[in-house]
Fold SusE domain-containing protein.
Amino acid sequence: MKTARYIMMSVAAAVMLGGCMDLEEVRILDPSSIVPPVLNPFDLEAVEVTNETLDKTLTFAWDEAYFGVQTHISYSIEATYGDSPKVVLFSGLSGTSASITYEDLNYTLALDPALGGLGVPLDTPSEVNYYISASIGNSADKYYSEPRALAMTVIYAEPIYPKVWVIGDFCGWVHDSSQYLFSFNYDANYEGVVYFGSKASNGFKITGAASWENTTGNWGYEGQDDPEAETITLTNGATTNIMLYSRPYYSFKYNTSTRVLTKQMSFDKVTCTINGAEEDMSFNTLTQRFYLDKTLAESDVIVFTIVDGDNRTVLGSLEDEKLNGGEADAITAGVSGNYRILVNLNNSADRTYRFSAEEYMNGDGGMDPDQPGDGDDETASESWGIVGGPNGWGNTPDLVMVEEGGFYVYKGLALEAGSDVGFKIRFNNEWNDAANYGVLTDDPAVIGPDGNPVETSGGSKNIYVTAPGTFDVYFNLAGKMVYLMNAGDPAPVFDTWGVWRNGYEQDITMTEEGSWYVARDVELNGEIFKIRYASAWDQDYGTALSYENGVPVGAAVLMNPKGVDMSGLTGTFDIYFNPTDGIIQINEAGEPAPEPVSWGIAGSVTSWGDYADLTMVLDGGSYVCRNLIFTGPDNGEFKIRANSSWEASLAGTYASSGSTFNVYAGGANISVPAGTYDVWFNPSARTVTINAVGSSYVADWYLYGNFGGNTTDWTNVEMASASVNIKAYMSASVSIPDDGQFLYKSGDETQWLGPDRTMASYTDPYTLTIGTAFTTSADKVNARIPAGGTYDFWLLPEAGRAYVMPVGVKPEYVPDTWGICGSISGWGDLGDFAMSDNGDGTYTRRDVRLSTSDEFKVRFGNAWDRQYSVNGTASEGVNNVTSDGVAGNTRVAADGVYDITINPAAATMTLTRK
């Protein structure tokens, strides 16, 4: 690459209607003006990685690069060993320093070059050269520092492969306890050995992520094959499980493209024979390895056997650590001492063994689906329980916790003082690191509603007290919190709003005071913070606009779901949050509380704040200001704002009387022609409707169901327009009880929609999956939500589909993946239609219904930084695409249902019409 080559940077303007990007600015940078980064010397001369030093960090510090203009620079840490090409260790860094753990460094340094690593020799000091590279925008050009050498001693690290989740009754239907199939060739083929115990026939599924989203893969079985079928074809989104298999162990292969599941083998156990003495090996469900702890002599002769009833397959070795031989190819140990013998059968083309002194007697390695607790003691099986001092650390069954109000609860637990007689919480009487919860530090437990953060793994600490007492124990699995309440005290409140601060272990709980949720005396030191629900990221709020100098203090500020991170404040503050209206107010600690949120109109009619805002009154689910007189363009502009604060103002583009339009933070003023109007505002949907005076307000669509905790009476909930580009309606933050049912109806009640009767297989009511699209029609059944809660309800009446989503999450939204954005998604009003990773550098979205009038592009991460388009009408088959951000949109030549595949590296798009 010539250094004289210039770099072109494009700064894109906002995406306009139709999805195209205008090129706002182009700069040409002279390479002679570019100053590369400078990697500073390390503060040590050598790094030795051991199992005891994995948590240590190595700090990389560098002087920033300069590209001739002020611009965002992305840095990477790269390395070479010997004559190897540079390997990127860490990328996307934006500062001038980074502290990397030895564990993270070790992984890529020790990894085989064929898998993308450096291949540094194990257990011996080796010189590694480190570099800092700098780049800007999407340019492929990098500018490197001079290398800094460091002696590195690395240890073995297991390769990390792409995986799919195998989840079922055998693991309690908990993704955190799943086993996996792995893509050893980084393609669409995944395989592995899974241990079901006696529970394979109870059912399982395969998912593409730790979720039930169809967009990432939720594969079940709807066919009629015989038990123990060699191959079956799965269905994405199937409501029925895979229930054809009944053996303890299976080696499965699954192709995510063809959806074919292949049974490669089934068996009862694996044994290890040493000098003629055969022993059963245990199976670690976390690493999916067989293991046996033994004291070995160098001359010991070893073989392994896969036992399937009377059939026995003996595995020997033709080369070190490879199980590629038979009974005649026995292994000579070659080592002496205490070792854990490990056998890995997951990769059918590369079965391996190894001896590990460091892992000898290192825990039992995971969960047995059958033992203990799979017998007469039904109360102690398949449940969360307490194990520790109160039950002799498992000498008797665990103390069973019962579900109560979002917690697993055990009341009246008598505890003695001290860590050794403390307790942990575990699932199903078993020491499974993925379902074994203890606290993070050696500190005693906090007694009361503040609670204690807990984490999985055998490295967590016992939960204990310093004075004996009797306690009620509340465990919140989703939020990973344990509360010890003095016996008889009220239950803690976990499912509420809180303040998350970067660098702190737990959120600050907000208490409900009228229409506000409040956290008082919050200490901030410039760190990032947000508001979120139940200490989880399903529902979180940030500001609607970015504040470079910190969030304004003492004024109402507009918030958005998944909004901008807040930061830049130092001091002690009282934080007030109103989720219904999406408003935050941050006051200096001790200042009077803000008034409840009220909405008003400010603009030319109030001399833009010289006079008090015109008050809007609540009428149903919306606010209204009636008989508002506008005399012409010079006196017909306004915004809607909360508590007379410009930081909480909204505006948008008026179309015509009676129409509903979206309003936004930072939007252009609402401008209306001369006349007298009623102005309606829906704060949840952030829409405005301007009607002629006296016109009754009727929304286009309503939810009709048993909402608000009422399980019998059905009520209306207004839906507001959620898109300026497509017909999409949404009701935000609507509460529905357990087993709540609902339908959709038009404002004039001429249309009633619900789950399509055929799609629902004539089941009434039809049970919905949160976050998953369902087909709607007038030939309908009722929709049912088994787990009550607060959700966003969406309807696309013309597209014939609907969604029930977690609050603040757009339909179809999947972060950090390729997706389709266009007229079918409202050009970003919905989430992009996510594409599945095929494992070969290509990504596919199947079954997309398109007409010749539809237009779309493919982009990454629901953003326009990386995008592709055919720039016109695409043909069936392979099409070249452009990625300059200026090209026109993609259209199809004929109406139909298409599979759309993008290959970013080859810059091609393939359309397959079904």
